[in-house]
Write a structure and sequence with these properties.
heterodimer; A: 226 residues; mainly alpha; 2 domains; 3 strands; 6% strand; elongated; B: 144 residues; alpha/beta; 5-stranded mixed β-sheet; two-stranded antiparallel sheet; 4 helices; 25% helix
Chain lengths: 226, 144
Protein backbone atom coordinates (compact mmCIF):
# COMPACT_ATOMS: atom_id res chain seq x y z
CA UNK A 1 0.00 0.00 0.00
CA UNK A 2 2.86 2.38 0.76
CA UNK A 3 4.14 1.68 -2.76
CA UNK A 4 0.82 2.89 -4.18
CA UNK A 5 1.22 6.14 -2.24
CA UNK A 6 4.50 6.73 -4.08
CA UNK A 7 2.91 5.84 -7.43
CA UNK A 8 -0.07 8.16 -7.02
CA UNK A 9 1.95 11.10 -5.73
CA UNK A 10 4.33 10.70 -8.65
CA UNK A 11 1.25 10.99 -10.88
CA UNK A 12 0.17 14.22 -9.14
CA UNK A 13 -2.46 12.89 -6.72
CA UNK A 14 -2.12 13.58 -3.00
CA UNK A 15 -2.44 10.61 -0.65
CA UNK A 16 -2.97 9.90 2.99
CA UNK A 17 -2.59 6.34 4.20
CA UNK A 18 -3.84 4.35 7.16
CA UNK A 19 -1.01 1.95 7.95
CA UNK A 20 -1.24 -1.12 10.16
CA UNK A 21 2.47 -2.02 10.34
CA UNK A 22 4.58 0.86 11.60
CA UNK A 23 7.95 -0.54 10.53
CA UNK A 24 6.83 -0.78 6.92
CA UNK A 25 5.84 2.89 6.86
CA UNK A 26 9.12 3.82 8.55
CA UNK A 27 11.08 2.00 5.87
CA UNK A 28 8.97 2.93 2.80
CA UNK A 29 8.35 6.60 3.66
CA UNK A 30 4.90 7.20 2.16
CA UNK A 31 4.15 10.96 1.98
CA UNK A 32 1.50 10.93 4.73
CA UNK A 33 0.69 8.00 6.99
CA UNK A 34 -1.38 7.51 10.13
CA UNK A 35 -0.26 4.42 12.03
CA UNK A 36 -3.23 2.78 13.72
CA UNK A 37 -2.45 0.02 16.18
CA UNK A 38 -5.74 -1.78 15.64
CA UNK A 39 -6.22 -5.48 14.86
CA UNK A 40 -5.14 -6.16 11.30
CA UNK A 41 -8.30 -6.38 9.23
CA UNK A 42 -9.83 -3.33 10.94
CA UNK A 43 -7.97 -0.25 9.67
CA UNK A 44 -10.80 2.06 10.84
CA UNK A 45 -10.71 0.41 14.25
CA UNK A 46 -14.24 -0.31 15.39
CA UNK A 47 -17.07 -1.78 13.29
CA UNK A 48 -20.36 -0.05 13.85
CA UNK A 49 -18.76 2.92 15.61
CA UNK A 50 -19.24 5.75 13.14
CA UNK A 51 -17.81 8.39 15.46
CA UNK A 52 -14.59 6.47 16.01
CA UNK A 53 -14.23 5.89 12.28
CA UNK A 54 -14.73 9.61 11.66
CA UNK A 55 -12.04 10.34 14.22
CA UNK A 56 -9.60 8.13 12.34
CA UNK A 57 -10.48 9.85 9.07
CA UNK A 58 -10.21 13.30 10.67
CA UNK A 59 -6.66 12.52 11.74
CA UNK A 60 -5.73 10.97 8.39
CA UNK A 61 -7.11 13.88 6.38
CA UNK A 62 -5.52 16.31 8.80
CA UNK A 63 -2.13 15.19 7.52
CA UNK A 64 -2.98 16.81 4.18
CA UNK A 65 -2.45 20.21 5.81
CA UNK A 66 1.21 19.51 6.53
CA UNK A 67 3.55 21.60 4.35
CA UNK A 68 6.09 18.85 3.75
CA UNK A 69 6.64 15.14 4.19
CA UNK A 70 7.06 12.34 4.73
CA UNK A 71 4.74 12.49 7.72
CA UNK A 72 4.11 9.52 10.01
CA UNK A 73 1.72 10.08 12.88
CA UNK A 74 0.34 7.71 15.49
CA UNK A 75 -3.34 7.33 16.33
CA UNK A 76 -3.44 7.49 20.15
CA UNK A 77 -5.89 4.60 20.66
CA UNK A 78 -4.63 1.01 20.76
CA UNK A 79 -7.10 -1.82 20.16
CA UNK A 80 -5.93 -5.33 20.98
CA UNK A 81 -6.96 -8.59 19.35
CA UNK A 82 -8.82 -10.62 21.95
CA UNK A 83 -8.26 -14.32 22.51
CA UNK A 84 -11.28 -15.24 24.65
CA UNK A 85 -13.72 -17.32 22.58
CA UNK A 86 -17.36 -16.38 22.38
CA UNK A 87 -19.58 -18.18 24.85
CA UNK A 88 -22.48 -18.73 22.45
CA UNK A 89 -24.20 -22.11 22.46
CA UNK A 90 -23.60 -24.73 19.81
CA UNK A 91 -26.29 -27.11 18.54
CA UNK A 92 -26.63 -30.53 20.13
CA UNK A 93 -25.80 -33.61 18.09
CA UNK A 94 -28.66 -34.39 15.70
CA UNK A 95 -27.36 -37.14 13.40
CA UNK A 96 -24.68 -39.24 15.11
CA UNK A 97 -23.98 -41.05 11.85
CA UNK A 98 -22.29 -37.88 10.55
CA UNK A 99 -18.89 -36.52 11.55
CA UNK A 100 -19.50 -34.01 14.36
CA UNK A 101 -18.38 -31.03 12.26
CA UNK A 102 -20.75 -31.92 9.44
CA UNK A 103 -23.66 -32.32 11.83
CA UNK A 104 -22.78 -29.02 13.48
CA UNK A 105 -22.48 -27.03 10.23
CA UNK A 106 -25.84 -28.32 9.03
CA UNK A 107 -27.51 -27.32 12.27
CA UNK A 108 -26.06 -23.81 12.07
CA UNK A 109 -27.45 -23.08 8.63
CA UNK A 110 -30.49 -21.24 9.95
CA UNK A 111 -28.25 -18.93 11.95
CA UNK A 112 -26.10 -18.32 8.87
CA UNK A 113 -29.14 -17.36 6.80
CA UNK A 114 -30.32 -15.06 9.57
CA UNK A 115 -26.90 -13.43 9.74
CA UNK A 116 -26.82 -12.76 6.01
CA UNK A 117 -30.31 -11.31 6.16
CA UNK A 118 -29.30 -9.01 9.00
CA UNK A 119 -26.41 -7.71 6.87
CA UNK A 120 -28.38 -6.78 3.74
CA UNK A 121 -27.59 -10.07 2.03
CA UNK A 122 -23.86 -9.54 2.19
CA UNK A 123 -21.68 -12.63 2.71
CA UNK A 124 -18.06 -13.50 2.18
CA UNK A 125 -18.75 -17.23 1.93
CA UNK A 126 -18.44 -18.73 -1.54
CA UNK A 127 -14.95 -18.40 -2.95
CA UNK A 128 -15.09 -22.13 -3.62
CA UNK A 129 -17.92 -23.44 -1.50
CA UNK A 130 -21.20 -21.68 -0.89
CA UNK A 131 -23.22 -22.27 2.28
CA UNK A 132 -24.88 -25.38 0.82
CA UNK A 133 -21.47 -26.99 0.33
CA UNK A 134 -19.91 -26.19 3.71
CA UNK A 135 -20.92 -29.55 5.27
CA UNK A 136 -19.38 -31.38 2.29
CA UNK A 137 -16.13 -29.42 2.69
CA UNK A 138 -16.03 -30.34 6.36
CA UNK A 139 -16.66 -33.99 5.47
CA UNK A 140 -13.60 -33.81 3.20
CA UNK A 141 -11.47 -32.24 5.94
CA UNK A 142 -12.70 -34.95 8.32
CA UNK A 143 -11.55 -37.61 5.88
CA UNK A 144 -8.13 -35.94 5.62
CA UNK A 145 -7.88 -35.80 9.40
CA UNK A 146 -8.64 -39.51 9.52
CA UNK A 147 -6.01 -40.56 7.03
CA UNK A 148 -7.35 -40.03 3.51
CA UNK A 149 -4.66 -38.45 1.28
CA UNK A 150 -5.57 -34.77 1.00
CA UNK A 151 -5.71 -34.78 -2.80
CA UNK A 152 -8.22 -37.68 -2.74
CA UNK A 153 -10.51 -36.37 -0.02
CA UNK A 154 -12.96 -34.58 -2.30
CA UNK A 155 -12.28 -30.93 -1.50
CA UNK A 156 -14.08 -28.89 -4.18
CA UNK A 157 -11.14 -26.55 -4.76
CA UNK A 158 -7.98 -25.01 -3.33
CA UNK A 159 -7.67 -26.21 0.29
CA UNK A 160 -6.88 -22.71 1.55
CA UNK A 161 -9.91 -21.16 -0.11
CA UNK A 162 -12.09 -23.99 1.19
CA UNK A 163 -10.82 -23.23 4.70
CA UNK A 164 -11.63 -19.56 4.15
CA UNK A 165 -15.22 -20.44 3.30
CA UNK A 166 -15.63 -22.69 6.35
CA UNK A 167 -14.15 -20.16 8.79
CA UNK A 168 -16.16 -17.31 7.27
CA UNK A 169 -19.40 -19.34 7.42
CA UNK A 170 -18.84 -19.83 11.13
CA UNK A 171 -17.78 -16.24 11.81
CA UNK A 172 -20.89 -14.99 10.03
CA UNK A 173 -22.97 -17.49 12.03
CA UNK A 174 -21.42 -16.05 15.18
CA UNK A 175 -22.61 -12.56 14.26
CA UNK A 176 -26.18 -13.86 14.45
CA UNK A 177 -25.66 -15.79 17.70
CA UNK A 178 -23.76 -13.41 19.95
CA UNK A 179 -23.61 -9.62 20.19
CA UNK A 180 -19.95 -9.95 21.16
CA UNK A 181 -19.03 -11.60 17.86
CA UNK A 182 -17.85 -8.35 16.31
CA UNK A 183 -15.28 -7.86 19.08
CA UNK A 184 -11.86 -8.42 17.52
CA UNK A 185 -10.68 -12.01 17.59
CA UNK A 186 -13.50 -13.52 19.61
CA UNK A 187 -15.42 -15.23 16.79
CA UNK A 188 -12.14 -16.49 15.35
CA UNK A 189 -11.14 -17.93 18.74
CA UNK A 190 -14.58 -19.54 19.07
CA UNK A 191 -14.22 -21.12 15.64
CA UNK A 192 -10.80 -22.68 16.27
CA UNK A 193 -11.04 -23.43 19.98
CA UNK A 194 -14.68 -24.37 20.48
CA UNK A 195 -16.40 -25.54 17.32
CA UNK A 196 -16.09 -29.02 15.84
CA UNK A 197 -15.47 -27.41 12.46
CA UNK A 198 -12.45 -25.45 13.67
CA UNK A 199 -10.99 -28.48 15.37
CA UNK A 200 -11.53 -30.51 12.18
CA UNK A 201 -9.78 -27.92 9.99
CA UNK A 202 -6.82 -27.83 12.40
CA UNK A 203 -6.68 -31.65 12.47
CA UNK A 204 -6.76 -31.77 8.67
CA UNK A 205 -4.01 -29.17 8.58
CA UNK A 206 -1.80 -31.31 10.81
CA UNK A 207 -2.57 -34.38 8.71
CA UNK A 208 -1.71 -32.56 5.48
CA UNK A 209 1.61 -31.47 6.96
CA UNK A 210 2.30 -35.09 7.92
CA UNK A 211 1.37 -36.15 4.39
CA UNK A 212 3.99 -33.73 3.02
CA UNK A 213 1.39 -31.62 1.23
CA UNK A 214 2.81 -28.43 -0.31
CA UNK A 215 3.53 -25.90 2.44
CA UNK A 216 1.15 -23.29 1.06
CA UNK A 217 -1.70 -25.82 0.95
CA UNK A 218 -1.56 -26.79 4.62
CA UNK A 219 0.03 -23.84 6.42
CA UNK A 220 -2.48 -21.26 5.25
CA UNK A 221 -5.47 -23.33 6.30
CA UNK A 222 -5.37 -21.31 9.53
CA UNK A 223 -3.75 -18.22 11.01
CA UNK A 224 0.00 -18.72 11.15
CA UNK A 225 0.06 -18.57 14.94
CA UNK A 226 -2.22 -21.63 15.12
CA UNK B 1 1.52 -10.75 12.18
CA UNK B 2 3.19 -7.39 12.77
CA UNK B 3 6.29 -9.12 14.12
CA UNK B 4 6.46 -11.27 10.99
CA UNK B 5 6.10 -8.32 8.62
CA UNK B 6 8.72 -6.35 10.57
CA UNK B 7 11.38 -8.70 9.26
CA UNK B 8 10.25 -8.83 5.65
CA UNK B 9 12.03 -6.88 2.89
CA UNK B 10 10.13 -3.93 1.42
CA UNK B 11 10.65 -1.81 -1.71
CA UNK B 12 13.00 1.07 -1.08
CA UNK B 13 12.50 4.53 -2.54
CA UNK B 14 15.21 7.15 -2.87
CA UNK B 15 12.83 10.04 -2.31
CA UNK B 16 9.25 10.72 -1.27
CA UNK B 17 7.11 12.64 -3.77
CA UNK B 18 4.80 15.12 -2.07
CA UNK B 19 1.83 16.75 -3.80
CA UNK B 20 0.07 19.68 -2.12
CA UNK B 21 -3.67 19.09 -2.56
CA UNK B 22 -6.37 21.74 -2.85
CA UNK B 23 -8.33 22.52 0.34
CA UNK B 24 -10.11 19.35 1.50
CA UNK B 25 -13.47 21.13 1.31
CA UNK B 26 -13.05 21.40 -2.45
CA UNK B 27 -11.22 18.13 -3.07
CA UNK B 28 -12.60 15.05 -4.78
CA UNK B 29 -11.62 12.05 -2.68
CA UNK B 30 -11.29 8.39 -3.64
CA UNK B 31 -10.52 5.32 -1.56
CA UNK B 32 -7.90 2.87 -2.73
CA UNK B 33 -7.71 -0.23 -0.58
CA UNK B 34 -5.32 -3.16 -0.56
CA UNK B 35 -7.88 -5.40 1.15
CA UNK B 36 -8.69 -7.21 -2.11
CA UNK B 37 -12.31 -6.04 -2.01
CA UNK B 38 -14.36 -6.70 -5.12
CA UNK B 39 -17.93 -6.67 -6.37
CA UNK B 40 -19.83 -9.92 -5.96
CA UNK B 41 -20.24 -9.92 -9.73
CA UNK B 42 -16.51 -9.50 -10.42
CA UNK B 43 -13.84 -12.17 -10.43
CA UNK B 44 -12.15 -12.63 -7.08
CA UNK B 45 -8.46 -12.05 -6.55
CA UNK B 46 -6.03 -14.84 -7.32
CA UNK B 47 -3.09 -15.53 -5.04
CA UNK B 48 -0.50 -12.76 -5.63
CA UNK B 49 -2.91 -11.03 -8.03
CA UNK B 50 -1.26 -7.80 -9.24
CA UNK B 51 -4.37 -6.40 -10.86
CA UNK B 52 -7.07 -4.12 -9.51
CA UNK B 53 -10.85 -3.99 -9.33
CA UNK B 54 -13.13 -0.97 -9.68
CA UNK B 55 -15.61 -0.28 -6.90
CA UNK B 56 -18.43 2.03 -8.05
CA UNK B 57 -19.40 4.71 -5.54
CA UNK B 58 -22.86 3.22 -4.92
CA UNK B 59 -21.75 -0.41 -4.63
CA UNK B 60 -22.23 -2.12 -1.28
CA UNK B 61 -22.42 -5.73 -2.50
CA UNK B 62 -18.75 -6.15 -1.76
CA UNK B 63 -16.64 -9.16 -0.86
CA UNK B 64 -13.13 -9.40 0.53
CA UNK B 65 -10.90 -11.63 -1.56
CA UNK B 66 -7.67 -11.39 0.41
CA UNK B 67 -5.92 -14.78 0.57
CA UNK B 68 -4.18 -14.45 3.90
CA UNK B 69 -5.80 -16.10 6.94
CA UNK B 70 -3.72 -13.87 9.23
CA UNK B 71 -6.17 -11.10 9.93
CA UNK B 72 -9.54 -10.47 11.50
CA UNK B 73 -12.48 -10.86 9.13
CA UNK B 74 -15.47 -10.35 11.39
CA UNK B 75 -14.99 -6.58 11.41
CA UNK B 76 -15.56 -6.39 7.66
CA UNK B 77 -18.45 -8.86 7.89
CA UNK B 78 -20.12 -6.69 10.53
CA UNK B 79 -19.39 -3.32 8.90
CA UNK B 80 -17.62 -2.84 5.59
CA UNK B 81 -16.76 0.76 6.55
CA UNK B 82 -14.20 -0.58 9.03
CA UNK B 83 -12.07 -1.42 5.97
CA UNK B 84 -13.66 0.57 3.15
CA UNK B 85 -15.14 3.72 4.70
CA UNK B 86 -17.37 4.69 1.80
CA UNK B 87 -20.36 5.65 3.96
CA UNK B 88 -18.15 7.80 6.19
CA UNK B 89 -16.83 9.52 3.04
CA UNK B 90 -20.39 10.20 1.87
CA UNK B 91 -21.15 11.73 5.28
CA UNK B 92 -18.09 13.96 5.05
CA UNK B 93 -19.18 15.14 1.60
CA UNK B 94 -22.71 15.86 2.84
CA UNK B 95 -21.23 17.87 5.70
CA UNK B 96 -18.99 19.82 3.36
CA UNK B 97 -15.79 18.54 4.95
CA UNK B 98 -14.65 17.12 1.61
CA UNK B 99 -15.62 18.51 -1.77
CA UNK B 100 -16.93 15.33 -3.39
CA UNK B 101 -16.79 11.55 -3.32
CA UNK B 102 -15.17 10.10 -6.42
CA UNK B 103 -17.45 8.16 -8.77
CA UNK B 104 -15.36 5.03 -8.41
CA UNK B 105 -12.82 3.60 -6.02
CA UNK B 106 -10.20 0.89 -6.45
CA UNK B 107 -8.93 -2.23 -4.80
CA UNK B 108 -5.70 -4.20 -4.92
CA UNK B 109 -4.56 -7.33 -3.12
CA UNK B 110 -2.08 -6.50 -0.40
CA UNK B 111 -0.28 -9.83 -0.49
CA UNK B 112 2.32 -9.04 -3.14
CA UNK B 113 5.87 -10.11 -3.85
CA UNK B 114 8.59 -8.16 -2.11
CA UNK B 115 9.39 -5.81 -5.00
CA UNK B 116 5.77 -4.94 -5.89
CA UNK B 117 7.16 -4.33 -9.37
CA UNK B 118 4.03 -4.95 -11.41
CA UNK B 119 1.90 -2.78 -9.14
CA UNK B 120 4.50 0.00 -9.20
CA UNK B 121 5.02 -0.04 -12.94
CA UNK B 122 1.77 -1.33 -14.40
CA UNK B 123 -1.47 -1.57 -12.42
CA UNK B 124 -0.67 1.28 -10.02
CA UNK B 125 -0.04 3.86 -12.77
CA UNK B 126 -3.11 2.53 -14.63
CA UNK B 127 -5.28 3.29 -11.60
CA UNK B 128 -3.63 6.72 -11.24
CA UNK B 129 -4.74 7.54 -14.79
CA UNK B 130 -8.31 6.48 -14.00
CA UNK B 131 -8.26 8.57 -10.83
CA UNK B 132 -7.06 11.59 -12.80
CA UNK B 133 -9.81 10.98 -15.38
CA UNK B 134 -12.30 11.23 -12.50
CA UNK B 135 -10.79 14.47 -11.22
CA UNK B 136 -9.56 12.93 -7.99
CA UNK B 137 -7.41 15.24 -5.86
CA UNK B 138 -6.90 13.05 -2.77
CA UNK B 139 -6.64 9.30 -2.27
CA UNK B 140 -7.28 7.69 1.10
CA UNK B 141 -5.30 4.44 1.24
CA UNK B 142 -6.62 1.68 3.49
CA UNK B 143 -4.95 -1.68 4.14
CA UNK B 144 -6.64 -4.93 5.07
Amino acid sequence: MCALAHVFENEGIATTALVSVRSVAERMHPPRALYCEFPIGRPLGRPGDDEFQHDVLRQAFGLLERPAGPVLELHPVVIELETEPLACSLPVRFDPSLPPAVDEARALRTAYDRSVGQRDGRTNVGRVAGPDAIPDVLAAYDRIANGTPWAEAGLPGDPVQCAHDVRTYYEEVALALDDAAAEPGRAEAWFYDVTEAGKTVLAARAAMQAQNAPFAFWFYLARGTR
Amino acid sequence: MRAYVDGQPVPEFDATPFVSPPPLSTATVAIVTTAAIHLESDAGFESADTGFRELPRAARDLRMGHWSPNFDRTGFAADLDVVFPIDRLEELAAAGVIGAVAPRHFSFAGNQDDSVTRVRLDSGPAVARLLRDDGVDVVLLTPV
